[in-house]
Amino acid sequence: MKKSSLIIIASIVSAILLIPFIAMQFTDQVSWNLMDFISMGILLSGTGLLCELAWRKTTKTKNRIFFIMAIVTVFLLVWAELAVGIFGTPLAGS
């Protein structure tokens, strides 16, 4: 993996995590603690790295689209479970 890819992924993750951090300065409706930022940082970084891996290891466009869509779908499901507990697992605290 190229160093520039890691820098791009880290920059995007940092920019996304800045959104709730800035929102917390202006409203009480966004209330994240340190664990929220850590878990979302790990989730976003893992998703970015897996997408990069899928992009590099597959050569056919159809396979790339399939793998990246699968990775993003898993990301969205885990995110929704952590946020509101749609499946009711202990992971969400329910």
Strand-helix topology:
Blueprint: H1 3-26, H2 34-57, H3 61-84
Can you tag this structure with a few keywords?
94 residues, 77% helix, mainly alpha, flat, 0% strand
Question: What can you tell me about this protein's structure?
Answer:
The protein has 3 helices and no strands. The N and C termini lie far apart (38 Å). It has helices spanning 3-26, 34-57, 61-84. The protein is flat. Helices cover 77% and strands 0% of the residues. The protein is mainly α and 94 residues long. Helix 1 (3-26) packs antiparallel against helix 2 (34-57) and helix 2 packs antiparallel against helix 3 (61-84). The longest helix has 24 residues, at 3-26.
Total beta-strand segments: 0
How far apart, in Å, are the first and last alpha carbons? 38 Å
**Number of separate helices:** 3
Described by the principal axes of the CA atoms, the overall outline is flat
Instruction: From the alpha carbons, calculate the radius of gyration and give it in angstroms.
Output: 15 Å
From the structure provided, what is the oligomeric state, counting identical versus distinct chains?
A: single chain
